């Protein structure tokens, strides 16, 4: 959800009203989202064609299992390193311009790869380098691409929108690998076939760029406060993750799942070539089987999600992949392998869509792109690190050994993962709180070197008078409010009681600057303020708790003017 201050309307008011039907296809009735979805599907088709052609080209350039597995690492590692940076830039800069730039970056990267492949000047390391460059663009593009969803559809349709986006990817995954494998197989030289696939993928980015260029973006909110700097924005995102248990649970679950399941993606080409004795087309069909299962999952998941808890969906997917890894290790029958890969594709989409929804619904507007960047970083980090490990194991032992080891690891991880729940209970109301009182005005001393709004640090003190009968309940709730203060920008927090009067309690928190304090007011949500209202309900005085704002007193020259204004 885009940025919004407490003084603006909720993001879905007056914009993109929810269709009467809330079926899984409802978001497609919104023209802007539909255009984006169609362009994205075409681009995804090119991406999956390239994935198959690139990996198969690598098998013709080298017999090293590690180098082949590193294709998955080259695709995943950029997001692992750049996820938070990408999220920070998407929360600071105009997302439309960012998307146009990074889509152009990917177009140029793939076009250059196509040229070098046609000319025959491609080596395993050059292929890895271009794959890495392509995915640098993907890493910087994806948080902004996902964060614009709430600008296109109402919040109530976000789960169905995420599922439709997964369907877009999986429609492409169902047919793209087979087309990519067929094109490689249609030429005598893998270089020629792969070159044409790379060229078509480069062209597929043009459709997305066209949609973005013609998008007349109307941001739902543009803060009146100065934008955060990139470093500060990254710190804010990390701080939010640290004090948000629901987001932490989603990130842990996605890492555990992708780390072990990455063995399927990184070693499938070796299974196809060495164990099943298939060519490029056969490998494309195996990849396509994953896509068919994923497409089935995307089409049925909206109904399943309304009946089955998220934890149960992910548990089913984990068990399905334990079985898949064992079958890939020991079964040499292509029909059986294709069948289990369809199930695996269903499980993959069910898990990834559920975890993506959990991230989008558990964070407020101001940090959404950073949270999605952290999610993508964790997701791709699991794939990248897992691919390195399973490729290394396969190279020094065998492919079946690597697959069995990943299956055992996935099984052992399940009891740990189940301790961290996903989408349990009602989702908090994350719409920005609409303040009725203006923020306090910072008095300025002539001659003081600090200038608004960067003066600081700032200490905010809130004094409560709490009857002894409510003391235990108050302290329990205010320690819940601690996480709200810290994830919204506080660098320190404490609650203290008066030594002589135990009914007098003082909440104190520190912000790095006055500007950070003003930002923290924008970041408070309706759910956060509901906690604050419960605290104030226990305050025994008729007037609200007394609040003071204190600025760090720096030393100034003795002859400095002593006036305020």
Automatic annotation (TrEMBL):
Gene3D superfamilies listed in its UniProt record: MFS general substrate transporter like domains (1.20.1250.20)
Subcellular localization, as worded in the UniProt entry: Cell membrane
Residue stretches spanning the membrane: 66-86, 98-119, 193-213, 250-268, 280-301, 313-331, 337-359, 371-393, 399-418
UniProt region (Disordered), positions on chain: 1-22
InterPro entries (UniProt xref): MFS_dom, MFS_trans_sf, TM_effector
GO molecular function annotations of the record: transmembrane transporter activity
SUPFAM superfamilies assigned to the protein according to its UniProt record, in alphabetical order: MFS general substrate transporter
Bilayer topology term: Multi-pass membrane protein
Main location: membrane
Keyword GTP-binding assigned: no
Keyword annotations from UniProtKB, A to Z: Cell membrane, Membrane, Transmembrane, Transmembrane helix, Transport
Major facilitator superfamily (MFS) profile domain mapped to chain residues: 32-424
Annotated GO CC locations: plasma membrane
Designated name of the protein: Putative transporter
UniProt source species: Granulicella sibirica
């Amino acid at each position: 959800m885009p940025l919004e201050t407490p003084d603006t309307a909720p993001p879905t008011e007056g914009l993109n009203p929810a269709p009467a039907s809330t079926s899984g296809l409802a978001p497609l009735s919104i023209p802007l989202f539909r255009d984006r979805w169609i362009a994205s599907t075409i681009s995804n088709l090119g991406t999956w064609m390239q994935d198959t052609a690139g990996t198969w080209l690598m098998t013709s350039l080298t017999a090293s299992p590690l180098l082949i597995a590193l294709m998955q690492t080259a695709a995943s590692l950029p997001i692992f390193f750049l996820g938070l940076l990408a999220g920070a830039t998407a929360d600071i800069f105009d997302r439309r311009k960012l998307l146009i730039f990074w889509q152009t970056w990917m177009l140029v990267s793939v076009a250059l790869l196509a040229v070098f492949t046609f000319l025959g000047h491609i080596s395993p390391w050059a292929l890895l380098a271009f794959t890495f460059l392509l995915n640098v663009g993907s890493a910087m593009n994806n948080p902004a691409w996902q964060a614009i969803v709430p600008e296109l559809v109402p919040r109530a349709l976000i789960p169905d929108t995420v599922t439709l986006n997964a369907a877009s990817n999986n429609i492409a995954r169902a047919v793209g690998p087979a087309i990519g494998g067929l094109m490689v197989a249609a030429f005598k030289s893998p270089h020629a076939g792969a070159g044409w696939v790379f060229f078509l993928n480069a062209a597929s980015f043009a459709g997305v760029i066209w949609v973005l260029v013609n998008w007349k973006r109307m941001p739902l909110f543009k803060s009146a406060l100065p934008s955060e700097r990139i470093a500060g924005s990254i710190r804010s995102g990390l701080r939010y993750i640290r004090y948000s248990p629901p987001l932490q649970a989603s990130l842990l679950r996605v890492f555990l799942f992708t780390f072990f399941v990455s063995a399927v993606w990184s070693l499938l080409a070796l299974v196809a070539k060495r164990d099943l004795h298939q060519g490029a087309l056969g490998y494309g069909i195996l990849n396509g089987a994953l896509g068919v299962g994923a497409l089935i999952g995307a089409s049925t998941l909206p109904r399943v999600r309304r009946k089955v808890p998220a934890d149960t969906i992910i548990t089913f997917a984990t068990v399905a992949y334990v079985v898949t890894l064992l079958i890939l290790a020991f079964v040499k029958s292509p029909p059986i392998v294709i069948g289990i890969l369809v199930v695996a594709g269903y499980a993959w989409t069910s898990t990834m869509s559920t975890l993506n929804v959990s991230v989008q619904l558990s964070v407020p507007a101001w940090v959404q792109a950073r949270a999605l960047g952290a999610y993508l970083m964790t997701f791709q980090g699991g794939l990248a690190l897992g691919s390195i490990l399973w490729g290394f194991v396969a190279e020094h032992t065998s492919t079946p050994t690597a697959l069995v080891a990943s299956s055992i690891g996935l099984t052992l991880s399940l009891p740990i993962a189940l301790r961290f729940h996903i989408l349990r209970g009602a989702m908090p109301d994350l719409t920005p709180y609409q303040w009725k009182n203006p923020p306090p005005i910072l008095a300025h001393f002539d001659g003081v070197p600090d200038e608004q709004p960067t003066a600081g640090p700032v200490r905010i003190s809130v004094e409560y008078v709490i009857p002894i009968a409510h003391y235990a309940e108050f302290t329990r709730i205010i320690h819940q409010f601690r996480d709200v203060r810290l994830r919204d920008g506080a660098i320190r927090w404490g609650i203290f009681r008066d030594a002589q009067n135990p009914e007098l309690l003082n909440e104190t928190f520190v912000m790095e600057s006055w500007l950070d304090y003003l930002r923290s007011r924008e970041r408070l949500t309706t759910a956060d303020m509901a906690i604050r209202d419960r605290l104030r309900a226990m305050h025994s005085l008729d007037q609200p708790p007394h609040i003071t704002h204190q600025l760090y007193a720096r030393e100034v020259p003795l002859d400095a003017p002593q006036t305020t204004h």
